[in-house]
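Need a sequence for this fold. Nothing fancy.
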């Protein structure tokens, strides 16, 4: 292997970027990639940091730090969300950008991978401050983004409202409306039907596909979902509509457990826009997020943040199947423990790819100014997700790989092929 670059040295464990590199190395070993190609894939093509001022409601000015990492664009324009969170770091954004590259390649949408983030707690900003921050950050990114260059989207802490501000700001600077500059917008301003539910719906499809292959009936399946935001609440609701029994859910402050099953439709209807569960479900026990990971269930769906299944708790995970709806919820060491214990893990780059898949559809609709019905979007999403799942499964079966290694092999291989076909210029 090539020697580590100190500039790329990840911070203290658990570092998402270190996890992403370890996963890439495993795929590169299986594919037999040479050192030159490995180095190309290990390093993001471009990293952008901005420290920018935002005017607060009391008239004071605060400086925020934000990042955009563009990992690889061999297969198409850079694509990936922007998150607002207190834990945002360059290390994390690098990992998330790399995962976007593989994710887009696995579902075979013509995008590369990027990610952005601002170090901020959005809950502590007023609407006006959030708008000021969003408009200023997208202005900072203006030189490196564009509808055929790099297309942001929502991620943790951002939503359709934020995308509308970003689209408007970019458009004002260009003298005309440019809807394809971001995806995940409200439908009234060029968003796609079905985009809000897309990641959660994709998680449902991934869960159906793994359950079918294992011979697990969805009817009565005991599922625990960590996180009740756009991804977790939709996945929980759709799974419960499909017959599963949702035995535990949680938000950032903790969760609820009821072995008889929770009424997730009612919980979702009352949850705040930021994914906070408002009223305690009657008869449920209060649990912590750490307890949810270890709860007695058949399928566990981490749908919140990264690094929640660690080497310290992987031994106590009771679920047979883990479907990663969040990005990077399982560290490589924890995954080794889970696999040794015979658990099956459907990786993030496959399980949560529904969001970017419908982002692709939104982008296409914006470029054509021709909009589709929701059932058309959902049918296409189902086809794309199930095909990607089948390709990953087939690779895992024929090569004796874990689903993570198989997914990464499929994704990395497609990116490598594009790099080789394009060649190096100049
Ligand atoms: N933030 C989402 C993800 O992690 C969606 C990205 C997008 O739609 O571009 O996949």
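Here you go.
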């Amino acid at each position: 292997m090539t020697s580590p670059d100190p500039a790329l040295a990840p911070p203290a464990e658990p570092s998402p970027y270190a996890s992403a590199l370890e996963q890439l190395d495993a795929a590169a070993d299986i594919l037999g990639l040479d050192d030159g190609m490995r180095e190309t894939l290990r390093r993001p093509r471009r990293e952008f940091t901005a420290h920018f001022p935002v005017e607060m409601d009391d008239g004071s000015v605060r400086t925020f730090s934000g990042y955009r990492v563009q990992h690889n664009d061999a297969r198409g324009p850079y694509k990936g969300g922007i998150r607002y969170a207190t834990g945002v770091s360059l290390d994390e954004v690098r990992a998330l950008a790399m995962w976007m590259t593989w994710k887009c390649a696995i579902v075979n949408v013509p995008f590369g991978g990027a990610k952005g983030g601002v170090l901020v707690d959005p809950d502590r900003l007023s609407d006006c401050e959030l708008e000021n921050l969003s408009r200023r950050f997208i202005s900072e990114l203006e030189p490196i983004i564009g509808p055929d260059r790099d297309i942001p989207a929502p991620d943790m802490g951002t939503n359709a409202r934020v995308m509308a501000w970003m689209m408007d700001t970019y458009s004002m600077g260009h003298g005309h409306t440019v809807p394809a500059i971001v995806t995940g917008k409200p439908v009234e301003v060029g968003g796609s039907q079905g985009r809000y539910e897309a990641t959660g719906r994709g998680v449902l499809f991934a869960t159906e596909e793994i359950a079918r292959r294992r011979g697990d009936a969805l009817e009565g399946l005991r599922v625990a979902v960590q996180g009740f935001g756009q991804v977790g609440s939709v996945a929980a609701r759709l799974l419960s509509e499909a017959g599963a029994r949702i035995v535990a859910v949680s938000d950032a402050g903790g969760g609820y457990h009821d072995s008889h099953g929770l009424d997730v439709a009612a919980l979702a209807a009352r949850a705040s826009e930021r994914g906070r569960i408002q009223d305690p479900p009657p008869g449920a026990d209060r649990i912590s997020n750490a307890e949810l990971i270890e709860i007695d269930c058949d399928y566990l769906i981490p749908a919140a943040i990264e690094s929640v299944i660690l080497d310290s708790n992987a031994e106590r995970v009771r679920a047979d199947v883990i479907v990663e709806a969040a990005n990077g919820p399982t560290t490589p060491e924890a995954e080794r423990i889970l696999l040794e214990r015979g658990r099956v893990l459907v990786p993030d780059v496959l399980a949560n790819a529904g969001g970017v898949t419908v982002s692709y559809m939104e982008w296409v609709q914006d470029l054509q100014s021709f909009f589709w019905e929701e059932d058309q979007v959902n049918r296409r999403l189902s086809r794309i997700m199930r095909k990607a799942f089948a390709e990953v499964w087939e690779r895992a079966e024929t090569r004796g790989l874990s689903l993570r290694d198989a997914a990464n092999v499929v994704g990395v291989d497609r990116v490598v092929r594009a790099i080789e076909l394009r060649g190096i210029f100049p």
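For context: The chain is about 45% helix and 15% strand.
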